[in-house]
Amino acid sequence: MKKNNASRILYKVFIYVALLALAISIIVPVAWVFMASVKKNAEFIGADVNPWALPKQFFYQNFIVAFRDAQMGEFFLNSVLVTATALILLLIIALPASYALSRFEFKGRKILNLAFMAGLFINVNYIVVPIFLMLSDANRMFHVEIFLDNRFLLALIYASTHLPFTIYLLSSYFRTLPKGFEEAAYIDGCGYFKTMTKIMIPMAKPSIITVILFSFLAFWNEYIIAYTLMDEHGTLAMGLKNLMAVERTATNYGIMYAGLVVVMLPVLILYICVQKQLTEGMTLGGLKG
């Protein structure tokens, strides 16, 4: 018994130490970026400068310069529009598709499932050049300039590339729900669409929130596709890259870190808002006899 108790204590100590080390490795860099974003440039340069020292004053002008000179406000708006549109398109397509694939039997269902699962193994970075060439050919074919530097098309590509993972995750959740919920809805006179929207989708809220968070992170931070397809309507990742290149050359580190904060802050706010839903159980309750 004593050996078992000692083993349990050592195991708990190991777990707590590992979690504490992981938390420190995440919190310290994030806190340092926020702290550096409100420092004057003189606090970064010099032999006697301590990079871990607290700011001497709250120099918020770094954010003003980042938004005014580097047009971070315009890039931020583009990212908001693209990310929101991509999330809406993704959910509109993925929710009915995953529900149908997981709850109904029909011809071609296995082939569709196999196709979506195969999409999990395709890295979109490998096909970004073919996508660019197809859109360029479409511009030449129709004598227009709307297929490139188009925020809606960028959002559509984002949503399309995340369909396999989203359908896989949502389908796995829908399969765990008892069929009694649907049967009760059909008895009450609900059709397939109303059953999906009023009964099944609300029950899938934890899984949907997980999809929204992961997809938001991917869309918000994506750079390669946006850099390849966009020009004047670039996203925040492109604006941050340009800002870092310019300010690093000019040794304006405070402005560079202010740009990093602009990119990080929406992600942190979203995570704080949905962390409770992410940690709660995938299903709550069940059928009573």
From TrEMBL:
This is ABC transmembrane type-1 domain-containing protein. Belongs to the binding-protein-dependent transport system permease family. GO terms for cellular component: plasma membrane. PROSITE patterns: ABC_TM1. The keyword Membrane applies. Keywords: Cell membrane, Membrane, Transmembrane, Transmembrane helix, Transport. The chain crosses the membrane at residues 9-34, 75-99, 111-132, 152-170, 208-230, 250-274. Residues 76-274 form the ABC transmembrane type-1 domain. It is found in: Cell membrane. SUPFAM superfamilies: MetI-like. The keyword Nucleus does not apply. Its main location: membrane. It comes from Blautia hydrogenotrophica (strain DSM 10507 / JCM 14656 / S5a33). Coiled coil: none annotated. It is a multi-pass membrane protein. GO terms for biological process: transmembrane transport.
